[in-house]
Design brief:
Blueprint lengths: L1 E2 L5 E2 L1 E5 L28 H14 L3 E5 L9 H9 L6 E6 L8 H7 L3 E5 L5 H8 L4 H13 L3 E8 L8 H8 L5 E6 L17 H11 L3 E3 L9 E5 L5 E5 L12 E4 L5 E2 L11 H4 L4 H13 L6 H7 L8 H4 L2
Parallel strand pairs: 3-4, 3-12, 4-5, 5-6, 6-7, 7-8, 8-11
Antiparallel strand pairs: 1-2, 9-10, 10-11, 12-13
Helix pairs in contact: 1-2
The protein binds S-adenosylmethionine and iron/sulfur cluster.
Iron/sulfur cluster (SF4) binds next to helix 11.
């Protein structure tokens, strides 16, 4: 079992399988993209599979596949097929922009991979296309509805962006009210490849909640697992639920059970911290298993207590892009 220096059990790995993406969301990276890693700096599928095996043996029982956009990797299903039969791994989830998932939906279902988070930051087509700097709204919307209708456990991630998409907060709740889906509103974080710098945000989770309760006064708070980063609610009469994720306010650090590995092998123990080492070269040596385990233990044993503590330690943290961290 992995236990950090603040006595928190770490059982959840967020594994970025690429830093590349076919969208250019303006809160995630600049229009021209970032300095994407060369191919030999990205893990191969065999390496990702070996890394997962090592970490599951150390106590990880949930892996979320993220990126970049996971489905830009043509060989992603090869990894997912291996993970699906990995003993000790109880939960495989994917975070995706849902542009490329269509051809894989049937096989995902067969593999039992049903927890899918879809990023959708607007239901107004023009707003969506402006934020993502591409024209894929219809494709994303169709794939989203297909996933929900086919019984996947879908959560929508909606980043609340001042002056960009706040007018869609109420409409997305109205649109989704008949579906079995959770709409989660996230505070914007300052990881956009350095294209926009900010030290505070206007749309905090409290403001988002007030905005929603002004429109829908009858809401009930739902029980959530202790390690959940979202505070969840149901609006009276709605089949869907909604959640608030204080990713900028960082109210959930006390129960954080996460470890991140970036597409190039960086170990990230807190979103607001710099990497605590890199696994790529270590994994590429012979008999790497023990060395990888040791490096993971070192990282987990020196985690910041909170995202605020991590941020204080590393003043330059804000130049990162989420496309390499994985969200
Ligand atoms: N491409 C996939 C997607 O968009 O779902 C997976 C990778 S993306 C980096 C993972 C998550 O990070 C998405 O839900 C995205 O909305 C979120 N994200 C990216 N930049 C962010 C930012 N600056 N603040 C908050 N969340 C962000
Ligand atoms: Fe791509 Fe996801 Fe970043 Fe948008 S949030 S640019 S879809 S990696």
């Amino acid at each position: 079992m992995l236990i950090d220096n603040h006595n928190r059990t770490i059982n959840y790995l967020r594994l970025a399988v690429t830093d590349r993406c076919n969208l250019r969301c303006n809160y995630c990276m600049p229009a021209e993209g970032i300095n994407f890693a060369k191919n030999n700096k990205l893990f191969t599928i065999d390496e990702l599979s070996k890394l997962s095996e090592i970490l599951v043996a150390q106590g990880i029982d949930k892996i979320r596949i993220t990126g970049g956009e996971p489905f830009v990797r043509k060989d992603l299903m090869v990894l997912l097929r291996k993970l699906a039969v990995l003993e000790g791994l109880n939960d495989i989830s994917i975070t995706t922009n849902a542009t490329l998932i269509g051809p894989y939906i049937d096989e995902l279902k067969t593999l039992g991979i049903t927890n899918i988070n879809v990023s959708l930051d607007a239901i107004n087509k023009e707003t969506f296309n402006k934020i993502t700097r591409r024209n894929e709204y219809d494709l994303v919307h169709n794939n989203l509805i297909r996933l929900i209708s086919e019984g996947f456990n879908v959560r929508i991630n909606f980043i609340v962006l001042e002056n960009q998409n706040t007018e869609d907060i109420i409409p997305i709740l109205e649109l989704m009210q008949h579906y079995n889906v959770s709409v989660r509103f996230l505070e914007e974080m300052p990881f956009n490849g350095g294209s926009k710098k900010f030290l505070t945000i206007k749309w905090t989770y409290k403001k988002i909640l007030k905005h929603i309760t002004d429109a829908f006064p009858e809401i009930t708070e739902l029980e959530s697992p202790a390690t959940s980063t979202s505070i969840n609610y149901r609006i009276k009469g709605h089949k869907s639920t909604f959640g608030l994720i204080p990713s900028f306010s960082r109210t959930f650090c006390g129960s954080c059970n996460r470890l991140r590995i970036s597409a190039t092998g960086d170990i990230i123990t807190c979103l607001y911290a710099k990497p605590s080492g890199n696994l790529r070269e270590i994994l590429r040596t012979n008999n790497s298993e023990e060395a990888v385990k040791e490096r993971i233990l070192e990282a987990v044993g020196s985690r910041a207590k909170t995202g605020f503590e991590a941020q204080e330690k590393y003043a330059t943290v804000f130049s990162n892009s989420m496309t390499s961290i994985g969200g």
